[in-house]
Amino acid sequence: MKKRVVVTGIGCITPVGHGKEEFWKAITEGRSGLGPITKFDAVDYPTKIAAEVKDFNVEDYMEKKEAKKMDLFVQYAVAGAKLAMEDSEINTDNIDHEEFGVVLGSGIGGISTFEEQHKKMLEKGPRRISPFFIPMMIVNMASGQVSMSLGAKGPNTTVVTACASATNAIGEAFKIIERGDAKLMITGGTEASITPVSIGGFCSMKAMSTANEEPPKASRPFDKNRDGFVMGEGSGILLLEELDHALERGAEIYGEMIGYGMSADAYHITAPAPEGEGGKRAMLKALADGNTPPEAVDYINAHGTSTPYNDQFETMAIKSVFKDHAKNLAISSTKSMTGHLLGAAGGIEAIASVLAIKHGIVPPTINYETPDEECDLNYTPNKAVKRTVNYALSNSLGFGGHNATILFKKFQD
Q1: Which residues are catalytic?
Q2: 233 with 76: CB under 8 angstroms?
Q3: How do the residues of the chain divide into helix, strand and coil, expressed in percent and rounded to 5?
Q4: Is 75 left (phi over 0), alpha (psi -120 to 50) or beta?
Q5: How far apart are CA 55 and CA 74, in angstroms?
Q6: How far does Cα 110 stand from its chain's mean position?
Q7: Most buried of the four, 242, 247, 296, 323, by CB within 10 Å?
Q8: DSSP string for 344-361
Q9: Could you give all domains of the chain from N- to C-terminal order, each with its CATH number?
Q10: From the CA atom positions of the chain, what is the Rg in Å?
């Protein structure tokens, strides 16, 4: 018999704030985290803007000497995980650590470490490369370091599916608990890729917005004048827990996770499949997994990257899945405020979905000014809306044709 899985802890480090309260307040107020790039001199780059994490003091979460052995994406993961555990109010002395696991996603991993050490090698020779270079850079080290910091000895793995990474990670963690292989799972995603080479690579693809004059307005999902995504960074971490385990300890339950679907476009290395066909199948699989009819869904946190094709094709996929009910849905892209956290995007967007259920508020899509005839659904323009949310979907679509959808519902015992 499948185990029921609930969300009992939330932690995040984001461009609009750290922790559940700051993050939720910012996105429901429609506050943008976008601004000029400060991490390096972007004067020669077509894109000069990003959604950087502000006021991150790593010593709030770990000792400085430990932080020096971690790339920034790992630091964000450990910080987010500790916030999620703190939020859950769980007493770790009373749990079986072999039934406590970690599944995290990251699209790029330790690219800042890679760039720094490559520069050091060119300037000073290979003997000057740090002995911590490899364990700082490799993508799995986020889940490895989180497990060490929390004593989580259960299932542990890492998902790398580009911008679908965190959503796939949450789905896999959900399935681990559902089949009885763990009682507790820390899951979500982390990314820290606002670096010269990373930004330069995305600029060369012409995937990013060049609306540098007014950074807070550059990310405009579903708007007719959208011109590309704006890169963000940070982490979005949830504690998933087997229901009986949560009830026994009197945990606060944010919502229940009931469905997970994934698919492949098998079409193109970067472009989405025509009409969002792959995303459509992921949504249908998540609904089927959760035994939920499409008309029961109230809210979709869309992938909504602010790129021309993604927003059009995701809209087409939603229409194809939900038919007449598509017009009744509340949809939003919180990337309009946070930027696109790549492999961590699905983590903070899952948090937004669960909090929408918990609080009965749908966060907005800001910067929605000029309607696009190809994108004609309710994207919750510019202001949050009070609405009962019993079921919420979160979509993530990644380069390589990876599509992932997760489904949450309001918890009822």
Answers
A1: 163, 303, 340
A2: yes
A3: 40, 20, 40
A4: alpha
A5: 17
A6: 17
A7: 242
A8: GHHHHHHHHHHHHHHHTE
A9: 5-248 (3.40.47.10), 259-409 (3.40.47.10)
A10: 20
Q: Which two tokens stand for residue 78?
A: 């450990």
- Is the pLDDT reported for residue 1 higher than 90? no
Q: Cβ neighbours of residue 373 under 8 Å, at least 6 residues apart?
A: none
For residue 351, pLDDT over 90 is answered with: yes
Task: Quote the Cα angle for 10-282-264, to 5°.
Answer: 110
CA dihedral 121, 39, 222, 368 (to 10 degrees): 180
pTM tops 0.90: yes
Which of the 8 DSSP states describes residue 273? P
What residues are paired with 329 via a beta bridge?
none
Lowest mean pLDDT among 4-8, 91-95, 298-302: 91-95
Q: Give the tokens for residue 199.
A: 């930004």
Q: Minimal CA–CA distance to 42: which of 190, 203, 216?
A: 203
pLDDT, one tens digit per residue, over 241-271 is 999 999 999 999 999 999 999 999 999 999 9
What's the average model confidence in pLDDT over 356-361? Answer: 98
Contacts of 161 (CB under 8 A, 6+ apart): 105, 107, 168, 343, 398, 400, 402, 404
DSSP code of residue 4: P
* pLDDT level of residue 413 (50, 70, 90 thresholds): confident
At which residue do the structure tokens 């681990």 appear? 176
Which two three-digit tokens encode residue 35?
Answer: 């601004």
